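Appendix B. Raw example, untouched.
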Amino acid sequence: MNKPEYSPAHAQFLKRVRANNRLVAAMRIGILLLLIALWELLTYFEVLDPFIVSSPSRVVSTIANLYKDGELFEHIGITLFETIVGFIGGTLLGTLIAALLWWNKTLSRILDPYLVVLNALPKIALGPILIVWVGANVESIIVMALLVSVVVTIMTVLGGFMDSTNANEMLMKTLGASKLQLFTMVVLPSSFPTIISALKLSIGMSWVGVIVGEYLVSESGLGYLIVYGGQVFKLDLVMASIVILCVLAAIMYYIVAWFEKRVTNPKQNPKKD
């Protein structure tokens, strides 16, 4: 199999793109390291109170102690499980409901103001109700994460469905395509970027829902560590939990971004001579 041949101008353009990508990656890492170093120096020289804002070295020490005590992966595992279940459930349910509302435009118009109200409603207000309905357990936390992410998913994906290419729809209708064929062959493929955007939003919303749920009912998990650390003034524990949350959320985001890249820009098999 031969590698594709590029013109000198195209090859130079690709070289500049790769160089720019490396520059962006290096700048991202450099800014992060600079912020960490600045944080450490400001607390070391007591420009900032390390008891209030902690410090990178104290955060690392706290994480190491959690690991030694066998608690680190227990809390991470619980929160990660709740987030993934809420994220997957909210995404699937939200996309399904969005498809149903696209299918029935009248139903979509009827439910539109209710979706707007639900999206604006602070979900933490539903916490006490969920505890009574579902119980003070993991299920209520997952339901909270699902509720937080599902409405955003519905509105984002439905907007993508409604904005699908009208010209292609008219062509399919002229050719006698059924509504199912129209949805699967035109609307769904053209809305894929919107669905990916909904996935990225849903990740953040699922983390919010889980942490809010753990604030209310959990006796384990990263949200519980944040609440417990605040109550007993162990702010190193609070900052360590927040750092872990940031890392986990970033990993999930980049997994979705990798999936987006793989699907939207699949590697094409080079043709054999």
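End of appendix B.
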